[in-house]
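Our example pasted here:


***
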Amino acid sequence: MAFHVDSEVGRLRRVILHRPGLELKRLTPTNKDSLLFDDLLWVRRAQTEHDGFARMLRERGVEVHLFGDLLAETLQSPEARALVLDRVFDEQEYGPLAADHIRAAFGQLTPAELAEAMVGGVTKREYLERHPEPTSVRFHVMDLDDFLLAPLPNHLFTRDTSAWVYDGVAVNAMRWPARQRESLHYEAVYRHHPLFRDEPFRVWSQGRVDSPSTIEGGDVLVIGRGAVLVGMSERTTPQAVEMLARGLFAAGSARTIVALDMPKGRAFMHLDTVMTMIDGDTFTQYAGLGMLRSYTIEPGSDTYDLKVTDHPPEHMHRAIAAALGLDDIRVLTATQDVHSAEREQWDDGCNVLALAPGVVVAYDRNVTTNSFLARRGIEVLTVPGGELGRGRGGPRCMSCPLERDRV
């Protein structure tokens, strides 16, 4: 099968990135919080940094697929267009007087135009420049610069919305409304794009708007040997972890999951913001994370049964090692004062992307963490992150591996 992710650190072969675009130009001091950003990015500089990141991956032999291109190519399919338009422009959102008019207007766009609109958003003013105003209370009460279709700036973080786990992909139900429409785009791509539609991969979960069971790819680490490490963060719920476990075990694709009970807060939004895997038995971890209560989930006596073993915080690393069939794991935590450590965690010092065992990509600004890893035998390749880092996501967050070698 062409798409298969067997580890966090095996040689990376193919990946999805999303180049920053119009959607990030829509961020303002007024809307940034609701769109889950702490700061505004200088978009042109962010694009330059992202281009450098993509170039580094290509130079290392990684095939890079840009999400904007995948979505535009997908929307050439009538079935994909219908799926996206029907789900987005429904009466619950736009009212019975406007929904059909707006859907028809967007249906006239070329695939490239529709893809940009779906990700970049459209204001009422922009709509009226090309189309008459529908007779609609819902439409009429909007201000001219209100978003008729909200932008999706978090598409930058391709790791979260879809996560490949062994021989399948989880198209995730996202925690916050600002990201929930992203799942529809990935569903369309995986179902209808020529690259994927004839491939026999499994689908572990399907994104559903307003689901109480949510999981995001930044919390999912495919640590290899049939094991998965999952953080139960502010965005990933225990019930979603159980559902992922049941699907993986029923298919025989994994044999154990270790779930970590993480602090629920912005600074620890995903597991990979505080802990990532960098070699076959080695992790980098933020000192402020501490040790967490963990749960080992294994197949039960039948297809729908799960066996759960809970561990006290001091056994966290032991539980991860056991899932890997090891006596112990190596955990690297940079030695620095509490203020410097907090700054580098905020700048995604632990959010590194492994290209091969012991070879990682990191933001150049995290000098202490990068130097610490290098002194311990890890090859650290750095990319500028002065603007991209403002989005609170590092190289791992910005990448969705499609194919990795096993370790």
Remarks:
- The mean pLDDT is 93.
- The first helix runs from residue 22 to 25.
- Residues 70-149 form a domain with the Pentein fold (CATH 1.10.3930.10).
